[in-house]
Structures are given as structure tokens and as C-alpha cells.
Specification:
By secondary structure, this protein is mainly alpha-helical. The chain contains seven helices and no strands. Bound molecules: flavin-adenine dinucleotide. The site of flavin-adenine dinucleotide has 11 residues, from α2.
């Protein structure tokens, strides 16, 4: 077996535990002034190949929510940050949870391989690259959903959240015009008016 020959030439191996943790019930403090993002909010199994991607999406979504919240004249100044953080969590939570579950599915697929079947059909152990996961534009999605998601209690349909194959093109319909993010200069002008 080539694998055995390779391992026999390795002077030492690291027993790197893959520690699993269930999704946290929330990423934000009760006051809504502090939040988690990236691995601190949602550790991923390496088989998801998504930890970094989702951390970057979190950062982008959070920054977009903060910009939109600051620019929204209907939100009082002391509610700007809590509204942004709660909306960030509402828009990200289900998607990230589904991506985490995908890592467990791939782990099971790769760790319980029936090599006889795989030799006949190598597709059986191919890493899935679903469009809902790989082609999501998180900034555009936040900007389109902001008006719905920033109002607490407004229902959000699951298919809007890019949280599985049922994600649809709803976000590109006219009822979701993108909320523009102001440039820093436009924002300053708005405040000085
Ligand atoms: C071997 C390996 C392969 C991977 N491959 C992929 C991949 O192919 N695709 C993918 O999307 N993801 C991959 N990941 C996952 C990805 O690296 C992580 O999900 C990502 O780095 C998480 O980013 P983060 O900013 O949340 O956390 P981190 O990158 O862990 O950043 C946290 C930072 O905080 C610092 N820190 C910690 N405590 C303190 C403190 N008290 N004060 C100040 N600073 C502190 C740390 O030093 C660190 O720099 C892989 C991970 C590993 C280990």
C-alpha cells in the first residue's frame, strides 16, 4: 500500500484532534453591543473547507450592517450598533449553520469510504461545491435584505438566507432594491445637513 510506505518514512506524527462543537445559540451579547465572528462564533471542521470563507463573509456582512445602520435615519444613535449586530446575526446564522453541517457530512463521506465502490465511481468522494455556498455575494445580500432584516420580528424566509440548495433568486427581484452604502464623504455630508 503506498499510504503505508509513506507513513513508514514519517519520523513522527501529530495526533491533531478534530474537536466538534455544536453551533452556539447566539453570537451577540444581550445588550447587542458585542458580537463574535469567525471561528470564535462558529468553529468549522477542516472537511468543510469553509472556516476562513465564512469568517470573511462574517466580516463583510458585519461591516455592511454597521454602514447601513449608521446611514439609516430611522434608527436612533444609541440603537445603531445593536441594530447592526442583531441584523448581522439574523442574516448570517442559518447560512453558517448549514455550512458547518456540510463539514460533518464530508467528514463522514471521507472517513467511511467503501474503496471498492469508489474505484468504480470516484465521484462518490468528490468534495461538494454547491452554488448556494460558493457563489453567495454576502454584501449584496445584506444590502438587499437590510430593510426587512433590520426591523426586529419581521419574518425572513429561509430561501433568502443562502442557507441551502433551496436558496432562490428572490433577492434579485424588484421588491429587494439594494440599500446603497454611503461613501464616508456622503455620510459626513448627510450628518452635516
Ligand atoms: C490546517 C488548516 C487548514 C484550513 N484550510 C481552510 C481552507 O481550505 N478554507 C477555509 O475557508 N478555511 C480553512 N481553515 C480554517 C481557517 O483557517 C479559519 O477558519 C480562519 O482562520 C478563522 O479566522 P478567524 O479570524 O476567525 O480566527 P483566527 O484566524 O484563528 O484568528 C484569531 C486571531 O486572534 C489572535 N488571538 C487569540 N487570542 C488573542 C488575544 N487574547 N488577544 C489578541 N489576539 C488574540 C490569534 O493569534 C489569531 O491571530 C483551515 C484551518 C486549518 C488549521
Amino acid at each position: 500500500m503506498p499510504e503505508r510506505r509513506q507513513v513508514s518514512k514519517t519520523p513522527s506524527c501529530v495526533d491533531w484532534k478534530l474537536v466538534h462543537r455544536e453551533p452556539l445559540p447566539t453570537w451577540i451579547t444581550p445588550s447587542g453591543r458585542t458580537c463574535l465572528l469567525g471561528d470564535a462564533a462558529h468553529p468549522f471542521l477542516p472537511t468543510s473547507i469553509q472556516g476562513c470563507s465564512q469568517a470573511i463573509e462574517d466580516g463583510c456582512a458585519l461591516a455592511t450592517c454597521l454602514a447601513l445602520s449608521h446611514a439609516d435615519p430611522t434608527i436612533s444613535p444609541h440603537q445603531t450598533v445593536p441594530t447592526a449586530l442583531r441584523t448581522y446575526e439574523r442574516l448570517r446564522y442559518e447560512r453558517v449553520k448549514e455550512a458547518q453541517k456540510g463539514g460533518a457530512k464530508v467528514r463522514d463521506m471521507w472517513h467511511k469510504v467503501d474503496w471498492t465502490k469508489v474505484r468504480q465511481n470516484p465521484e462518490l468522494i468528490k468534495l461538494p461545491r454547491a452554488d448556494w455556498l460558493m457563489l453567495h455575494d454576502c454584501e449584496r445580500s445584506v444590502r438587499r435584505l437590510w430593510r426587512h432584516a433590520s426591523v426586529e420580528g419581521t419574518p425572513l424566509k429561509r430561501e433568502w438566507l443562502a442557507a441551502g440548495p433551496e436558496s432562490d433568486e428572490t433577492l434579485y427581484r424588484p421588491e429587494f432594491p439594494p440599500t446603497p452604502v454611503l461613501t464616508p464623504k456622503e455620510e459626513l455630508d448627510r450628518r452635516l445637513q
